[in-house]
Queue: 3 jobs
Job 1
Amino acid sequence: MYDVIIVGAGPAGSTAAKLLAEKGFGVLLIEKFKIPRYKSCSGILIKKTLMLIDRYFGESVPESVMCEPVENKGMIFTNDKGKEYRFEQEGRNIWRSSFDYWLVRKAEESGAVVRDDTIAVSCEEKGNFVSVRLHGKKADIKSGTQTYTEEARYLLDCEGVACVLKQKIMKTVPAYITTYQTFQAGTIDLDPHYFYAYLQPELSEYDAWFNVKDDLLVLGVAVKDTGKIRHFYNEFLGYMKRYHNLKIEEQIKSEKWLMPRIRPGCQIDYGVRHVFFAGETAGFLNPMGEGISAAMESGYQAACAIADHFDYLDQVYAAYGQSTENMRSYMQRQWSLTGEMAETFQEMK
């Protein structure tokens, strides 16, 4: 029986797994995809994320996970009236698959047991522990996959936007935003050291964005209605051609993903009895999809609360909520600021 089973080997899950394993707890880290896993993401580490990595992992982000241009100088927002807002700060440009893989390896080096290609099917409370049904290949079984059960005192759900376990536990279906982005070979008259977000309603139902990764132009739009992806994407391409001299030579690839739709009040779900939530599963997500810093911090604080108050469930909740209050307040202020910048997000004021 493990002390903690963590579902989801992204920034939240890996950070939590590393801390708990270092403190001597028995940790099983489950990932439904084959590691290294792929995730559609801007891949920008903001200054706060860099500070958290230094604090939680005791070292800087390795060059092996970065892409060109390595240095990110901040974000430039264009609101629905065409006004620019510049937010200058130090950052790094990374590939999420490589970054997440590095985090997982750090958790494993600290003593966490990692099982990829394994799905958490369901979980059930049994007194003072949780029974989790998994489907995958156990390390000690050589022949194929199977459905089996593991038990732990706590389960930390860090699945991200999918949050299948959370949906089953809370019997709710979260609201999603669908993202669509392409990687293009071409040229454009914009500084590749910035991440650009466009909030004009004619370009998307949420936001549109541009950044550069290893000389590839990344252009994306986010929608509430998936049937409108092609319309908004074409509108965004036309906008970038008119105002920034975009010239496309060849499309390398395209991808779709989901992210939570944060609602007014920025509700946070900390968990249900012995099942805790962190990262996007809990509701932590900053504007323009910046979820890495919130995922790492919430995963770390959830792990600290479990480690410090392992035998006292109420105290775990109290410590987790208190330690993330500043983060939740910061998130609310950021969404409120976004609401003041553009009518697209006016409900968030």
Note: The CA atoms of residues 22 and 96 lie 24 Å apart.
Job 2
Amino acid sequence: MTKPRAGRYTPSAGWTQELRKARLHFVTGKGGTGKTTLAASLGLALASGGRRVLLVEVEGRQGMAQLFDTEPLPYGERHLVSAPDGGELRALHIDAEAALLEYFQMFYNLGFAGRTLRRMGAIEFATTLAPGLRDVLITGKIKECVTRTGSDGRFAYDHVVVDSPPTGRIVRFLDVTRALTDVTKSGPIKGQAQGVVKLLHSPETAVHVVTLLEEMPVRETLEAIEELSDAGLRPGAVMINRVRPPRLPARSITAAADGRVNSSRVRAGLEAAGLDLDAATLDGLVDETVEHAIRIAAERSAMEQLGEAKQPTIEVADLTEGVDVAALYEIADMLVEMGVR
């Protein structure tokens, strides 16, 4: 197991009691916000303390294999990494065709015929013709993982975390009720889908949205939360990624963002600290101060907008070293410190 680096924590509203009731966690977000990274870190955090967690990938990008620097994930649950205090994180890459073959075998005993259909390209044709079928198959497999129990009656997994489609497609992906009307009116797939609908609309499921403190991600986050609520799905935490601390006193940010920086006072402060800078360097430092203040002011405004959603928030500090396996453990430490369990 890779040893995690020392954690750095940012205060936030944290993980609520309602979120602790959830066992199925979908993680979505605008592309580029770091949703795959936070899905992996959330899985590690939930697995800490001896729990068993399944991390599910549904988009075919093999992003988890890249994050954990391992070979591509097969259609099959496998050990990924160990979590702190004896937990285990397992992974599953869901392929819609493989899921359909599984349905054929389970409900119709058509394993051989299904493989023949796959070689003919019939399964790909069917899922292309009826896109809703693909989502029904994938969410059906997720539901099976969530509800599966062992011989002792205990759930096979304490939590299931899904690296989900981005915010622009998340409601369509999870709105199995609508997808079902496009696929089938009766039969085993309909019955399975009804079980999926019940799970997705229950307190056991939460949809977390990853965002940055930037205009477009914040806008998409607010729109996604509204769409999820309208569809009867339960928004979870807003996970604010790459939060950077301000390097100016709060009372100075507004003035600096307006360009009101007293160069003489800056020079006097530097000289008192034993630094004697030339005019060009001082001007560059003042310009950087103004740019930093403008960014902090914009991020404050973005945070206020996110507050309108009235959702629990988790702030994840920016890791300047980049994201590797050790960074995933570091972020998981942050999440545990904020109450994720």
Note: The beta strands are 24-29, 52-57, 78-83, 87-93, 159-163, 205-211, 235-243, 313-317.
Job 3
Amino acid sequence: MSPAPLHRPRRLVAGDRVAVVSPAGPSPAANIEAGLGVLESWGLEPVLLPHAAAQGAYLAGSDAGRAADFEAAWADPSFAAVIAARGGYGVQRMLDRIDWVRLRGAEPKAFVGFSDVTALHEAIALNLGTATIHGPMPAWSKFTTDTEMREHLRLTLFEPERVQTLAPAGAKAIVGGTATGVTLGGTLTLLASGIGTAEHRERLDGALLLLEDIGEAPYRLDRAVTQLRRAGWFDGIAGVVLGSWTDCGPEAEVRGVFEDLLGDLGVPVAWDFGFGHCPRSLTVPLGLKAVLDADAGTLQFGLPALR
């Protein structure tokens, strides 16, 4: 059975309160301050949750604290959105501490993040049935310097009908053709490490799978894709959209991995789609129906990301 489109939260408007949480790694105070300044310039009222500025060797405070912040933010009706400050590492460690049953009664809200936050996108989709937004985060080092990237996120949040079609300049086909499906995915190694957990998906029939990563050598990308393939993720899939592969090795070698492992699926596979850990990273809705045209290098959503 093809995955059904998920519930769309409402779009943002000036004056909205938004919760900023740190579900993974810590952020330098200067990065957080600068990122919050950008959100304020959009007319939002960003609120840093109690543990969001916590520091640690590679975690933003305790697992319990990070989980408590996310749960409190999602349950609070005064917040219109929950935005991850940055990725790093640590989301999977706190997922089982969240009371997902409690949160099912809360009004869905926009959720933004990527990288390690991929695990939280999956948890929200599977536990709450809510579409989310794979996009840049305010404490990410590139956020305050990349005007084009920020503007695409702002439009997605405030005027999503203006960015229903993604057409990155460098996109090209590994396997041509068109396909319709519901978008899901994120960082490849996070998806692979979720196999066998509470966020495990048995199959992705009819889905458009988005994949990207950073700092993974080609053989490690091969291992992660092979794990997903052996777990059945590509059985019945509609298409694959490949984003950026920053610091993963020579482009030809990285592309060769995906040609080898995905070229025989019989579905469209698009390359270099401009989302993930890259300059001018595109914001991409997850959990919504879209049409992929690998030859044209476009991904067109039938509805805006937010209602």
Note: Residues 29-41 form the longest helix (13 residues).
